[in-house]
Each structure stands twice: as structure tokens, then as C-alpha cells.
Design brief:
The chain has 67 residues and is mostly helical. Helix content is 69%, strand content 0%. It is globular and about 30 Å long.
Length: 67
């Protein structure tokens, strides 16, 4: 199943409680920013960004409908 950007935003807003993590995941999934661009934008290392994205995706993907 393919999700629209508005559906992705709603899922992120509903299931991620950290404002920082929500913004990073929105930047990644909706706006398509690279890990390097995310790191620069949020003043963090690539490794920190990857950890946040992978954990946040894990939380989000638990709530997605299977295809």
C-alpha cells in the first residue's frame, strides 16, 4: 500500500512523541532529505540522525497496515 504525504504526516504526529524526532522523520520521509542534509539542518552527526530515523521508523512501521 502506498501512503500520501498527509497520511504519513498524520501517522508521525500520532505515534512519535518527540518533536525533534517527528521533524527529522518528516524531513526524511516527506521531504526526502538525505542523512547528511538532516545532520546539517539539525546540528547533529550522521550517526545520530541515522539512529533517530531507524528508531522512529520502527515505531511508525508497527502501525502501518500490511499490504
Amino acid at each position: 500500500m502506498e501512503y500520501t504525504n498527509s497520511q504519513i504526516r498524520a501517522l508521525i504526529d500520532e505515534h512519535l512523541h518527540s518533536i525533534r524526532d517527528r521533524q527529522i522523520l518528516l524531513d526524511r520521509l516527506v521531504d526526502g532529505l538525505t542523512f547528511e542534509a538532516l545532520a546539517e539542518k539539525h546540528g547533529m552527526s550522521d550517526r545520530q540522525i541515522k539512529t533517530i530515523v531507524y528508531k522512529a521508523e520502527g515505531i511508525l512501521f508497527k502501525h502501518l497496515q500490511p499490504p
